[in-house]
């Protein structure tokens, strides 16, 4: 039985969504920092992909195409926001009082909250490099920028994360002092 519909050849599309949907949603969450927007982004990308599913399968990498759709849509949203004069600053908000219980449970660092303090482009690059384990070259290709841009944005984002959550990163000064 063929999986043809009004949208074309959809053999394997449902299975693809079931298996890769969670990874696509994680990427969308990293890009948007908002669950509702992330779900909309994935749905829009999958809606556009299903109409070309047969060709995407023949070309061999439908997930790469869908990820590119998601990045392109996110870039468009960034541009629309930039036109509205949204300003991103380097200022870190005052920390909220610790939620530690009386039993001394250390407060949990929520990476999603930390990623919200990065620029959208930095979020995308950090997600692709460290969550999806893509190389600099693969990230540059998907983001349509130079490898140097990926390296610089990664460097800047990691420095920002170090300032926001130093407990996530090894402290070089403390390590050097302990060695002496």
UniProtKB/TrEMBL annotation:
The keyword tRNA-binding does not apply. The keyword Transcription applies. Keywords: DNA-binding, Sigma factor, Transcription, Transcription regulation. Residues 112-158 form the RNA polymerase sigma factor 70 region 4 type domain. SUPFAM superfamilies: Sigma2 domain of RNA polymerase sigma factors, Sigma3 and sigma4 domains of RNA polymerase sigma factors. Transmembrane segments: none annotated. NCBIfam families: SigE-fam_strep (TIGR02983), sigma70-ECF (TIGR02937). Belongs to the sigma-70 factor family. ECF subfamily. PANTHER family: ECF RNA POLYMERASE SIGMA FACTOR SIGM, RNA POLYMERASE ECF-TYPE SIGMA FACTO. This is SigE family RNA polymerase sigma factor. It comes from Phytoactinopolyspora halotolerans.
């Amino acid at each position: 039985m063929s999986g043809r519909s009004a949208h074309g050849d959809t053999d394997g599309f449902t299975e693809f969504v079931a298996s890769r949907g969670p990874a696509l949603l994680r990427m969308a969450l990293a890009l948007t920092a908002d669950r509702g927007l992330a779900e909309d982004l994935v749905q829009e990308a999958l809606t556009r992909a299903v109409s070309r599913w047969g060709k995407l399968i023949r070309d061999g990498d439908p997930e790469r195409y869908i990820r590119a759709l998601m990045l392109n849509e996110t870039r468009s949203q960034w541009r629309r926001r930039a036109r509205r004069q949204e300003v991103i600053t380097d200022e870190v908000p005052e920390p909220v009082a610790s939620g530690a219980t009386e039993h001394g449970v250390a407060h949990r660092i929520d990476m999603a909250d930390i990623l919200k303090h990065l620029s959208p482009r930095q979020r995308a690059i950090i997600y692709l490099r460290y969550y999806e384990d893509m190389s600099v070259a693969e990230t540059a290709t998907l983001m349509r920028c130079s490898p140097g841009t990926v390296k610089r944005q990664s460097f800047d984002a990691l420095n920002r994360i170090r300032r926001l959550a130093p407990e996530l990163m090894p402290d070089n000064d403390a390590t050097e002092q302990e060695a002496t």
